[in-house]
Amino acid sequence: MRRLLAPVPLAVITVVVALVALLAYGLVSKSPDATIDQALARGEREPAPALTLPRLSGGGKTSLTSYRGKVVVVNFWASWCEPCRAESPLLERWHKRISKRGGTVLGVDLLDVSSDARSFVRRYGLSYPIVRDREGGSQHDFGVVGYPESLVVDRKGRIAAVKRGPLDDAWLRAHLPRLLAEPA
Fold first, then answer.
1. What is the pLDDT of residues 104-116, one digit of tens each?
2. How far is CA 103 from the centre of its chain?
3. Among 46, 96, 98, 164, which residue carries the largest CB count within 10 Å?
4. Which of 166, 163, 111 is nearest to 137 (CA)?
5. CA distance from start to end of the chain
6. d(CA 132, CA 53)
7. pLDDT value of residue 12
8. Residue 28 clears pLDDT 70, i.e. is over it
9. What are the beta bridge partners of residue 169?
10. What percent of the chain has pLDDT over 90?
């Protein structure tokens, strides 16, 4: 027992316990915020977190609350993300479809070089509003852990659907028409 309580074994045990605790913290902090997903699984719509960020082009800021009364597909992306490139034409088509019915797409460029993001927008001919989150703070607020991720905010500012990973036409068809038909 004396040997176990000697300074060296005690220090080794302390370091091992600290490393295990740090690993557990890292795993928990990197997982998506399950609050939104759990609420949707219960059939509840949580209010969307505040989001006010600078516009990618043109100066000024845009706030998610300024779209209250509209259905908003909030898409988190980056110019270097291959799946983001693949889904951009789909998002543009849907933006054109829903803009006439009180909907929009709002792109959130995360942790990206602004000039690269602007080139991306030009390359894919994106016409929907895009903001930039150079520091990535919105990732935590919305539980984003990968690119791309999207969520749909209803006309009352509540999160109505979440898609972790690339969007497809079937997912958008399953969610947007129903939400666009809801009153504000």
1. 999 999 999 999 9
2. 18
3. 98
4. 111
5. 71
6. 6
7. 66
8. no
9. none
10. 78
The structure's pTM equals 0.82
Q: How far apart are CA 117 and CA 113, in angstroms?
A: 6
Amino acid symbol at 72: V
- CA separation (Å) from 21 to 4, 14, 32, 133, 141? 21, 11, 19, 31, 24
Tokens standing for residue 129? 């509003």
Structure tokens at 52: 């006010």
Q: CA geometry: angle at 48 spanning 46 and 49, to 5°?
A: 120
Instruction: Find how far residue 58's CA is from the centre of its chain.
Output: 23
Distance CA 74, CA 55 (A): 14
**Pair of tokens at residue 154:** 């209803």
Encode pLDDT of 142-182 as tens digits: 999 999 999 999 999 999 999 999 999 999 999 999 999 99
Classify the C-alpha dihedral 179-180-183-184 as positive or negative.
Answer: positive
Dihedral, 123, 165, 99, 46 alpha carbons, nearest 10: -140
